[in-house]
Design brief:
With 540 residues, the protein is α+β, with helices and mostly antiparallel strands. Helices cover 26% and strands 17% of the residues. The chain is built from eleven helices and 15 strands. Strand 6 and strand 7 form a beta hairpin. The two termini are 29 Å apart.
Length: 540
């Protein structure tokens, strides 16, 4: 039993939406490709047209049905999704106060007998439409933590904030593309001439007999980018272990930043704040720093198959009376102090993993040499603005391992041989390293995340008090749309509903019934978006 959302409740037509595409005219016998002889005088088409591999016949079978316009309205919440989820069952409308059943709706009486719900996948390569919505939500999550709104006070725009980029160390020489000086107008369509990949005067030879030199000027689409110059010299084991430990390295880095700033506040005479708590029947006191770090981060998968983090770190004050309240930090510490603390922590934090049968001494985990921290401003006069940061982070929230050329679901003993090969390509060797190192019980997380090349974290995370959550944004969108359409009950945003919709639905499949259904639904959705009023496009 689940409480319904707007995506599983049929929507009525909203004012201002585009008219649905009219059914195509049935071919007549005087046309060369006539199909009119197969249509009876009542306009009904043969039943087998809906199962035909010809998309024209599929479309005619759908558009000539009497419930075609009802079907378009019914599938509109999922229109544009590549593989919507099909649900069947019963929906009950209950009175919130008493639990009395007010109405019952069965999917058997709906078009096709199912409810279509968007898949909600965040990956752009899996579903562009759902990932675009996720990207827009990620933009709001990141930017509201920098300028306020969505429940975050607006004075956070005056808090010190920085944008650090922390990368992984080198595990071996790989093919790269470097442009020393950009002359293009847009980096998205950069046509600048890159530098040679790895030019060497002496052309050194590795112990395996491979020349460690490359004079090619690689294009952006070159498949060699990110691959090792000598696969036998490359440390694939260390790279997948670094991926699986990247989250722990970030946690230790934030702790080191807090300690560095705490020492700084004490040196500058800023007093700590008391925190009273009850222990064993006695009121005790502990001292806390006068500041608090609020942060978010996005993980970007590089072409060599290792992640690096783009963080947003904001400095807040610490309220001793209300830990959930967001207040300004002490004026004695600023963005330059926060930047110095992050740079110091990134260059000093290291740790050694637990022993492994393949490496009893463990692996040393730390950040690479490429560390860049920029100060975020909202005035447009600093190194980077809040809008640029939000757009940059949201872009990577919909990406995963596509940059490496590898995309797959979670691997099992039956499917791993399709993607892993110790003598294969760069990604195949990484997956093989994950699978082999993941044999011991304490290291099985490597096997669980072998399809992600060892990285098991989410690609967009944040601290609890940084900003709004994705769940709140989705609920606000549902409430907003129900005020514009005839959902279960029209309520104003923030008003408690008097009815509750409860679904008894079960999963019956994914995807559209036919290719023609997907084309018709997507076309109707695109027309509706073009003709929709401006005030309906942006939720409050």
């Amino acid at each position: 039993m689940t409480v319904s959302t707007l995506t599983v409740v049929p929507e009525a037509s909203a004012s201002g939406t585009a008219p649905c595409a009219e059914p195509p005219t049935i071919a007549t016998p005087d046309r060369p490709d006539s199909l009119g002889s197969l249509v009876d005088p009542g306009g009904r088409v043969p039943a087998w047209w809906s199962r035909s591999p010809d998309q024209r016949l599929q479309a005619l079978a759908r558009t000539t049905r009497p419930d075609y316009h009802d079907w378009l309205t019914h599938v509109r919440p999922a229109a544009g999704c590549i593989r919507p989820i099909r649900l069947a069952g019963t929906t009950l409308t209950l009175e919130a106060g008493t639990g009395r059943v007010l109405a019952t709706m069965d999917t058997a009486g709906m078009p096709d007998g199912v409810i279509l719900k968007p898949c909600g996948n965040r990956r752009a390569t899996v579903c562009p439409t759902c990932s675009k919505r996720y990207q827009r939500d990620a933009y709001q999550v990141v930017r509201s933590g920098l300028i306020g709104g969505k429940g975050v006070p607006e004075h956070v725009a005056t808090h010190p904030a920085v944008f650090p980029t922390l990368t992984a160390p080198s595990f071996g020489q790989v093919h790269t593309r470097h442009v020393k000086r950009h002359t293009c107008e847009s980096r998205r369509r950069c046509d600048c001439r890159p530098e040679p990949c790895h030019p060497r005067r002496d052309a050194p030879i590795c112990p395996h007999g491979t020349p460690l030199v490359c004079y090619a000027r690689h294009e952006e689409t070159d498949r060699r980018l990110g691959t090792a110059l000598c696969p036998d010299c490359y440390d694939y084991d260390a790279q997948v272990v670094w991926n699986v430990q990247a989250g722990e390295l970030w946690r230790r880095t934030t702790i080191a930043v807090n300690r560095h700033l705490h020492r700084l506040t004490r040196a500058r005479g800023i007093p700590d704040i008391p925190d009273y708590y009850l222990s064993r029947g006695k009121v005790r006191i502990r001292w806390k720093p006068p500041f608090r770090l609020s942060f978010g981060k996005a993980a970007e998968m590089q072409r060599r198959g290792v992640v690096h983090f783009h963080g947003i770190v904001r400095l807040d004050g610490n309220d001793p009376t209300d830990p959930t309240r967001i207040i300004p930090p002490p004026p004695a510490i600023d963005a330059d102090d926060l930047k110095a603390a992050i740079d110091h922590a990134a260059r000093t934090v290291t740790f050694t993993t637990n022993p492994h049968p393949a490496r009893p001494e463990g692996w040393q985990i730390g950040w690479g040499d490429q560390i860049l921290t920029k100060v975020i401003t909202v005035t447009g006069r600093g190194e980077i603005t809040d809008a640029q940061v939000a757009a940059y982070v949201a872009k990577y929230a919909t990406k995963s391992t596509e940059a490496t050329g590898h995309t797959s679901a979670r691997l099992t003993d039956d499917t791993v041989n399709l993607y892993a090969d110790g003598d294969g390509t760069h990604t195949e060797r990484l997956i093989e390293a994950c699978w082999q190192l993941g044999q011991p019980r304490d290291w099985r997380r490597l096997r669980r995340w072998a399809h992600m090349l060892g990285f098991g974290g989410h690609f967009l995370t944040k601290s609890r008090r940084y900003s709004v959550t994705f769940t709140i944004l989705r609920q606000q969108r549902i409430t907003y749309r129900r005020t514009q359409t005839s959902g279960p009950e029209q309520t104003t945003p923030g008003e408690q509903p008097t009815t509750l919709v409860v679904n008894f639905l079960q999963f019956v499949g994914t995807g559209w019934h036919t290719t023609a259904d997907a084309l018709l639904a997507n076309t109707s959705a695109a027309l509706a978006r073009e003709h929709q009023p401006e005030q309906l496009l942006t939720p409050t």
